[in-house]
Amino acid sequence: MMHQQRPAARLSPSGDTEDIVALLAPRLAYFAGVARTEHVTRAAQEMQVPQSTLSRALVRLEEDLGVELFARRGRTVALTPVGRTFLAAVERALAEIERAAEEVRADTDPAAGKVAFGFLHTMGAETVPSLIHAFRADHPRVRFSLVQNYGEAMLERLRAGELDLCLTSPVPDAPGLVARRIDEQKLRLVVPADHRLAGRKRIRLAEAAEEAFVTLEPGYGLRRITDDLCRQAGFVPRVAFEGEEAETLRGLVAAGLGVALLPPPAVPRPGVVELTVTAPRAVREIGVAWLEGHVDTPPVAAFKKFLLSRRGRLLPG
C-alpha cells in the first residue's frame, strides 16, 4: 500500500511570527554550530548530536527559508552570502535567548533572586523600607523591583503577572486573587491648625458633617473608606478637592482648603492638627495579595512567608 508523502512545511511571507519562531527556533543553534566549525561532523561532535540529525536539520532549515545557507564541499561547508547575513541575526538572537535564560535563572535564585513588590504610596516612606530592611537581615542578596500605586492599579498589575505580591487596602476579595489581612491602621481627621476643631483631641466624625473634605480620587481604596465612614456617620462628604497622594492632601488641609481622613504621617507636618476619631471606628485594613494558583519562586515564597509572619505588627511603631 502506498502513502502519498506530505509536502514539507514552508514559510509563507505572510505567515504569523509565532509560527515562524516555532518552526525555526530548534534549528538555529545547529546552524550556528556548523557555521562556526564549517564542518558538519566536527559540529555534531561538539554539540553531541548525531551527524544525521544535524544534516537533516540544516536541509530542513534551508527548505523552510527557501535559500541556500551553505556551499557544500564534501564534508566541509562554507557560508553563502545569504548564510552570512542570516548568521549575524541568528547569533544576536541566540545571545539574547541566553541572556534572558540567565536573567530568569538569576531572578529565581533562592539566595539572590528578585521579588516584584507593589505597595500603596502611604507605605513608601516608612513601612516598606522597614519591612525590606528586616527581611534582608536573613536574605541579604534578594533583590526587589518596587512599584508604588493605588490599590486597583496594583491588582491589575498583579493579574497581568507584573507583580508577585502587593500590600494594599482595603483587603481585596476578588476572583483569581488570594489576600490575607495583616494589620490595620488608624485614620485621623486632619484639620488646619487654625480650625475651629483644632483645640480638640478627639472627635466624632458626625461633627465634621458640614466641613469641606479633601480626598483621594475615586478608585483609590482610601477614598472608598472615607466615603464609607462618612456614610456610617450619617452624611455624604462635600468634596472640595481630589488628589492622588496623601501628603498632597495634608498640604491642602494646611492651606485651609478642607479637612481629610488620613493615616498618620511618617513625619509630623506643620500647619495641621490630627484628631482621633471616636465614632465610627476609623481604621483601614491592610493585606497582602497574590495571584491564585501562581507558583512562587523561592525568593517570592520567602518574602510572602515573612510578610504573613508580621500579622499585627506590620506598621512601624
Automatic annotation (TrEMBL):
Residues 23-80 form the HTH lysR-type domain. Keywords: DNA-binding, Transcription, Transcription regulation. Signal peptide: none annotated. The keyword Ribonucleoprotein does not apply. The keyword Ribonucleoprotein does not apply. It comes from the Bacteria. PANTHER family: HTH-TYPE TRANSCRIPTIONAL REGULATOR CYNR, TRANSCRIPTIONAL DUAL REGULATOR HCAR-RELATED. Belongs to the LysR transcriptional regulatory family. This is LysR substrate-binding domain-containing protein. It comes from Streptomyces macrolidinus.
